[in-house]
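call fold(seq) -> tokens
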Amino acid sequence: MFARENARELPSEMGELRRMIDEVDAEIVRLLDQRARLARRVGEVKRERGLGAYVPSREREVMDRVFSLSEGDFPKKGLEMVFREIISCSISLEARLKIAYLGPETTFTHEAARRAFGSSVEFEPQASVPEVFARVERGEAQYGVVPVENSMEGAVTHTLDELMNSPLKVCGEVYLPVSQNLLSKEETLDEVSVVRSHPMAIAQSAAWLRKYLPWAKVEEVESTGEAARNAASEPGVAAVGSELAAEVYGLNVLARNIQDSRVNATRFIILGRSWAGATGKDKTSVVFSVKDRPGVLKDALSAFADEGINLTRIESRPSRKRAWTYVFFADFQGHPEEERVQRALARLEEYCPYVSVIGAYPEAPPEVV
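ret:
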């Protein structure tokens, strides 16, 4: 008897729940329209004052506030994705943004650019890191996205070399887990006879390929995006690449996370004409050279230690001005608006003939697979 009563009550309860969801959806749409009107007005004010549409410090503030308001019923990751797209749409209403990135489409840099800016702005793939810098420097794109380091492979030297001489500033960062996947139009591993990808992606997945596809011929191509295009058009071909590539080219994901290391992530930087404002949880990037004497690097780094500033990365690169001379790239926690950072940079200049702050931006939490 109880079961029959429940069966009769269920349709009416479902109907009521769906009616309530429809009401919530209607309110969400109404509020989104209201937000869009406000965003258009913000865009007008920014244009009147000569301000940029993309403000990383404000975006961090919005995201932090959204997370604090949530009661936890809606998953945090989903909340972040929803508001990333809301912010992206709002930016597109304020101004038309072009984002240059190291292409082609569906590469990890493309994915990082989408994570930073959402999908409502215009993305322009470039063939090399210098071309990304050049597009932004010439004003043909407002921002650029390039990789700067990998947790397994270390620094991306092309990016460091461009930062050394470019007037552009680092205004943001994105960490992206390197998740390699086997993509193909085929439906089973048995149907795969050729695997193609960028040399680094192949190297990162070598052990898995040897174990599960020992019969397949492995071929290197220019990018994971090119490999995905090949897999979409040629029978028997699989690509090692991102799930974004599978989505764009209509490929099956035959295997996920086939990379040998589960803690592999890449850090990307966002390039603009000025650095970001302070948020209270920031990073600053600086490049400097040192005088040729014993202990000078130790003395230079003491400028940060004495102020209690944490260095998160330091790299050396040839200066390209004189043989066997080097410059140092360093990232540290803090912002140039802070007094302790100003004191540290002043101390650094006492030991170094050249010091340049090349960026300040909200610190992104590192992500790993």
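The chain has four domains: 17-93, 98-176, 181-255, 274-362.
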